[in-house]
Specification:
Distance between the termini: 39 Å
Pfam families: DUF7529
Number of helices: 3
Number of strands: 8
Strand order of the largest sheet: 1-6-5-4
Oligomer: single chain
Number of domains: 1
Largest sheet: 4 strands, mixed
Radius of gyration: 16 Å
InterPro entries: DUF7529 (IPR055951)
C-alpha cells in the first residue's frame, strides 16, 4: 500500500495564484485594467555583504512582452502592495504594482524560503531597497525597486 505524499507547497502555491486572481478581480471590479503574471520560476538572490538582495522572477515571453509594452506605453508603477503568507517554511507573495493615474495594475506572484527571506530582508534593509527583476528567458530584466524591504520578509 502506498501513501499519497504530496508537496505542501503545491497547494500553497495554488492558493497564492488564486489570491492573485481574486485581487485582480477586485481591481477589475473597480474599473482598473489588470495584468496578471504567473512566473515559471522565482529565485531569491542575497549576498552576505548586503551588496544584493533581489528577487528574480522568470516569466513567459508573452507575459514579458506585456510588462515591457505597458512600460513603453508610459505606464508608471508608482505604488505597490505586497501580500504575503508563510507556510511550511516557504514565503508566498502576491505583488501588486499600481499606476493610479491610469488605473493600471500589474500583479505577479513569487515564493522563496523563509530563512532566505529573513536574510534578504536584512541585506535589503542595509541597502535601503529591495529589487525585483521580472524577466523573460534570455531577456533584459525589468526592475522594480521597493523602499520597504520588510514587506517581502513574510510573516513573523
Amino acid at each position: 500500500m502506498s501513501e499519497d505524499v504530496t508537496d505542501p507547497r503545491a497547494g500553497a502555491w495554488a492558493a497564492t495564484v488564486e489570491d492573485m486572481a481574486a485581487t485582480a478581480d477586485a481591481y477589475d471590479d473597480a474599473g482598473w485594467d489588470t495584468y496578471e503574471v504567473e512566473p515559471g520560476d522565482t529565485t531569491l538572490l542575497a549576498t552576505e555583504d548586503a551588496e544584493r538582495a533581489d528577487l528574480d522572477v522568470v516569466v513567459t515571453g508573452p507575459d514579458y512582452e506585456t510588462v515591457t509594452g505597458l512600460i513603453e506605453d508610459g505606464v508608471s508603477f508608482t505604488e505597490y502592495e505586497v501580500l504575503t503568507a508563510t507556510e511550511a517554511g516557504t514565503v508566498y507573495v502576491v505583488v501588486v504594482m499600481e499606476d493610479p493615474d491610469r488605473e493600471v495594475a500589474l500583479l505577479f506572484a513569487g515564493m522563496y524560503g523563509e530563512d532566505d527571506a529573513a536574510d534578504a530582508a536584512d541585506a535589503a534593509a542595509e541597502r535601503g531597497e529591495f529589487v525585483v527583476h521580472l524577466r523573460g528567458l534570455e531577456e533584459e530584466p525589468v526592475e522594480f525597486v521597493y523602499e520597504d524591504p520588510g514587506l517581502f520578509a513574510g510573516e513573523d
